[in-house]
Design goal:
Length: 109
Amino acid sequence: MEFNLEKAKGIGLKEPKKKADEYDADQLALGIEVEKEIIGDEEVAAIIAALRLDKIPDYYTRLKDMEEAATAKKPKGFEDKLVAALEEPESKEEKPKIEPDQSPPPSNP
């Protein structure tokens, strides 16, 4: 694989510091996949991935790890407990009703 540097320059991207075959193949492949989801153009995605790898050589492994941690499964029954907690009344005691023009009862300190 070779980078299309003319295309990169045409859209204002910098030139990667290395040739495509000098990058970690797994990182570059993962990077192309990630960037292609956003850009839609494999040649541009490859250059963007290389530019990110110039700064952080394991950028896409870190990104993948972060995404996996953020979307980790919630404990079983988590949603049910959350919904139940939200639906519970604030207090089991019945609140006194206040009629118009009536002050609330004094509270105990």
